[in-house]
């Protein structure tokens, strides 16, 4: 695999967790949210405005993303600001985009 790290054999629990992670990338709304957050931290209403969706729809999707540690949040009074959980999430998005564009 050239200079890339070899992927070691995974146990069943790791396969299950990996499948759960990837499942969360299969929803277009969640992908749009992750893309917006890859550009910087945003409040829920800002995400809703950018995507033309209701705040409750965005909040529901953010809860799902938060539960699988793809996003993190910080409360500021009654407002909540979201960001990608870490750089790995941005890398997964970037690699996915590169892959779909490569196969054109």
Distance between the termini: 23 Å
Order of helices and strands: HHEHHEEH
Approximate shape: globular
What is the CATH architecture assignment? Orthogonal Bundle
Total domains = 1
| CATH fold name | Arc Repressor Mutant, subunit A
Unreliable spans: none
The CATH class label is Mainly Alpha
Q: Provide the spatial order of strands within the biggest beta sheet.
A: 1-3-2
CATH homology-level superfamily = Winged helix-like DNA-binding domain superfamily/Winged helix DNA-binding domain
| Proportion of strand residues | 5-15%
Classify the helix fraction into a percent range.
55-70%
Average pLDDT rating:
91
Q: For the report, how would you describe the main beta sheet? A: 3 strands, antiparallel
Radius of gyration computed on alpha carbons: 15 Å
| Helix vs. strand class | alpha+beta
Count every beta strand, where a strand is a DSSP E run of 2 or more residues.
3
Task: Count the DSSP helices.
Answer: 5
Topology:
Blueprint: H1 12-23, H2 28-38, E1 42-43, H3 44-51, H4 55-67, E2 71-76, E3 79-84, H5 87-102
Antiparallel strand pairs: 1-3, 2-3
Helix pairs in contact: 3-4
């Amino acid at each position: 695999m050239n200079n890339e790290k070899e992927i070691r054999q995974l146990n069943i629990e790791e396969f299950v967790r990996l499948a759960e992670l990837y499942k969360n990338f299969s929803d277009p709304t969640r992908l749009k949210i992750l893309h917006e957050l890859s550009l910087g931290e945003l409040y829920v209403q800002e995400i809703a405005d950018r995507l033309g969706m209701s705040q409750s729809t965005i909040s529901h999707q953010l809860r799902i993303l938060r539960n699988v540690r793809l996003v993190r949040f910080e409360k500021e009074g009654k407002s909540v600001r979201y960001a990608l959980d870490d750089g790995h999430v941005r890398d997964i998005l970037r690699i996915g985009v590169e892959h779909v564009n490569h196969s054109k």
